[in-house]
Amino acid sequence: MKDLLSMNQLTNEMIYDLLDKTHRMKKGEFPSLKGTFAANLFLEPSTRTKQSFYVAEKRLQMEVLDIEAEQSSILKGETLYDSVRTLEALGADVLTIRQSERGALKEIASRTKASIINAGDGTGEHPTQSLLDLYTIYEEFGTFENIIVTIAGDIKHSRVARSNAYALEQLGATVQFSAPDAWREKDGTYVTMQEAVETSDVVMLLRIQKERHQNQTPMDSYLETYGLTKQRASLMKPGAIIMHPAPVNRGVEIDSDLVECSRSRIFEQMNNGVYMRMAIIQTLMEGKHYENHKRIQMERGLCATV
Ligand code: CP
User: Which of 42, 86, 183, 194 fits a disulfide with 156 by CB distance 3.0 to 4.6 angstroms?
Assistant: First the structure.
């Protein structure tokens, strides 16, 4: 694997390999990627993803090129493709990119030798968030089989919901959703928040993505009607956990007191994100060496296909 663009490119075997690598990273078994370069290009706002990639890359002893959108030549009309090719020409081995156009990285990745990581493409996908969420669930329950996950909130505009629903079902979990009518996707089983808390092992809340809404967002009494209140949290099953990719809007989708309650894994998700991103980078660097080896073999006429 050279790039990580979507969860649907990962088999269960590949996901379990990443979970295992993350576990080893979390125990402090860090490989060294000294002498390699990572470039982080974030054209939409980010705190967690951007900074956890930075920490992950530094822990792997990589050199890091951190590109600020406001200071980049994209503002002067350079295309994203030309910016990526530029960073590759400067020596970047791995490029982590957040940008707003769904699916835009596929074409770019096919035209570069550097590894491309999708750090969120508009309403498309957020595979590294999904993988750290999977790790957090696996760390808690040791399995995905028979685990019921409710993803609640702004499903329609959430790349996290899309990536997680796909991967969790592939791994054997049951996924259901809870959302106001306006933010539902046409597929999927929808339940009320009352039903969600009573049946779920994981209640995964989502932020309302106002920046992606065409019409004004109805926020009045959202918490009471659709969110996780303290009263609802008191009905959760023994051992059930609360997750949220963050940023959290306290008092909107979740009562502020629940963000750091004993059921919450929200900050543990962020901590796990560093180790999962280390595992992803290590895996892509191994994959890139293999792809390069195959390409060189083909160029020398030693194998028929790449
Ligand atoms: N969860 C997540 O993607 O957070 P950021 O937008 O802060 O990166």
Answer: 183
